[in-house]
Amino acid sequence: MTRSGRVAHMPVREGVSASVVAVPAGHWPNLLDFLAHRMPGIPREEWAQRLAQGLVLQESGQSAQADQACQVGQRFFYYRNVADEPRLPMQAAVLFEDDHLLVADKPHFMPVTPAGPYVQQCLLVQLKRLTGHADLVPLHRIDRETAGLVLFGKRLHERDAYHALFRDHHIHKTYHAVAAHRPELALPRVHTSRLAEDPAHFFKMQEIPGEPNSETRMTRLGIQGEKALYQLEPVTGKRHQLRVHMMAMGMPIVGDQFYPTVLRGPNASEDFSQPLELLAQSVLFTDPHTGQDRSFESQLRLRF
């Protein structure tokens, strides 16, 4: 079994927390053979290099050796690394920080946590390097293509109370989006539907018949020629919900590469000059630990 996530007694290295892999029943001549077999997505040569560089640790914290034996239940810790990681054109900004919470403004194209070719460039690792807080954990996620507010907890034992805000719909989130202007469409309105993963494209969602499991409130804020600025308030938090709901209204968000037509795959090269015009603009909630009413707004702006 492989599990990702920070382990308390392992140090953070350049903002990257250790991931852990446990040895299941089976036989491998040595640790290098086990790692190469267990995680074939990483070439054997790279595992050998990580071991040589001391980037794989035993539970004691000592460097693991490529030729050492593996025993069932033994755990090893490793640090994710991407050679020649591409650089993103913008950096994140911290908007608020206290003893419990950190609020950041995430640019377009930046993943919240390590994903694909991005490790050092992801929001979480950047913030750990910037603040020195090894226990930072994202309290929610927004798409890599989406810009705007992301909340982080600073104390691991407090995160469940923050997660409950999202689970129980006790946090009010507002997004802005730029899309085509449809003057015949009556707004404001509430759009509901049942969303499920698209069987033809694992990275997409689609509306299907059945009991609705997603809900978005839509308002038009302004008009410029053939485009309009919309305010979107998701009541639920399904993956790609806002993008699919806007497409269903005949108003796909400007810059969307997945909806309605797949213009590029999830790992294709990106055109940073054409971002998805979707912004996590504001959040409102009562802090479960301080009792204070919180209100945050993104300092980023869409092209409208």
Contiguous uncertain segments of 5+ residues: 1-8
Order of helices and strands: EEHHEEEEHEEHEEEEEHEE
Instruction: Provide the gyration radius in Å.
Output: 22 Å
Main sheet record: 11 strands, mixed
Number of E-state strands: 15
The count of helical stretches stands at 5
| Helix and strand composition category | alpha+beta
**Mean pLDDT over all positions:** 91
Q: Into which percentage range does the β-strand content fall? A: 25-35%
Report the principal-axis shape. globular
Distance from N terminus to C terminus (CA atoms, Å) equals 47 Å
Residues in helix, %: 10-25%
Structure description:
This protein has 304 residues and is of the alpha+beta class. 14% of the residues lie in helices and 29% in strands. The protein has 5 helices and 15 strands. The strands form 2 sheets. Strands 5, 6, 7, 8, 9, 10, 11, 12, 13, 14 and 15 form an 11-stranded mixed sheet that branches. Strands 1-2-4-3 form a 4-stranded antiparallel sheet, with no helix packed on it. A hairpin with a 3-residue loop joins strand 5 and strand 6 (101-106). Helix 1 packs across helix 2. The N and C termini lie far apart (47 Å). The relative contact order is 0.13. Residues 1-8 have low confidence and may be disordered.
